Amino acid sequence: MNQIEKEDFVNLISLLKNNIEKADKKIDNDFYDDFIEGVQDIEQQNYKVEDKKAKTKVRHKQNAFSKKIKTNYKYECAICGIKHKSFLIGSHIIPWTEDDSIRLDPKNGICLCVLHDNAFDKGYLSIDSNYRVIVSPKLEKDKKLYRLIKKHENNKNNLSRKSKPDKENLKYHRENIFKRN
After folding, report:
1. What is the pLDDT of residues 156-167, one digit of tens each?
2. In this structure, are 147 and 100 located in the same domain?
3. Does one domain contain both 11 and 75?
């Protein structure tokens, strides 16, 4: 592998930073400054980093939502049936950031394990109007991951419980988040 001079690398990162800033005015410059400093520290084998205090938005009441969803699903992943509590998430169907009026609505939630939550959030799986799992063809690029998730396609598993997710919320997910092609 060819090596790039540190100064050239920093310049490339700066160009990348400038291009991204032009494309999206909301880019946080501190993030990129920290990134560049981090790359430089790694190159200089300076691995120590002090903690930094920051102001962040907090998703207060999220824990109550998550607990309610997990309880509704009897602490079991709606897709694969995993029951280990530390691997379960009360996942939002319509993302938290999209609609503040349904953030705590249990009909906007599904109990998923970390793998299926991530695939659901990223749009690699969704749920049809009959509560059956559908898998994105885009997932085929990673054969092992595809096999793990594909085996649940068309299954209802825990999705047809009395605490079913709202069909309109699922429709939103399929139309706005699910990766069809």
Report:
1. 777 666 678 999
2. yes
3. no
**Residue 60: both structure tokens together:** 């207060």
Q: Is residue 88 part of a domain?
A: yes
Angle 69-74-79 from CA coordinates, rounded to 5°: 80
- Are residues 67 and 29 both part of a single domain? no
Helix ranges (DSSP H) in the chain: 6-23, 29-43, 62-72, 114-121, 143-150, 167-176
Report H helices in 82-166: 114-121, 143-150
Name the residue range of residue 154's domain: 62-176
Tens of pLDDT, residue by residue over 39-78, are: 888 888 888 888 877 776 666 678 888 999 999 999 999 9
> Considering the entire predicted model, what is its pTM?
0.72
Residue 30 shares a structural domain with residue 68: no
- Phi first, then psi, for residue 89 (nearest 5°) are -135, 140
Assign 119 to helix, strand or coil. Answer: helix
| Cα–Cα distances in angstroms (integers) from residue 29 to residues 26, 33, 34, 44, 157, in the given order | 9, 6, 9, 23, 45
More confident residue, 10 or 139: 139
Mean pLDDT of the chain: 84
Domain count, the chain: 2
Q: Are residues 36 and 70 in the same domain?
A: no
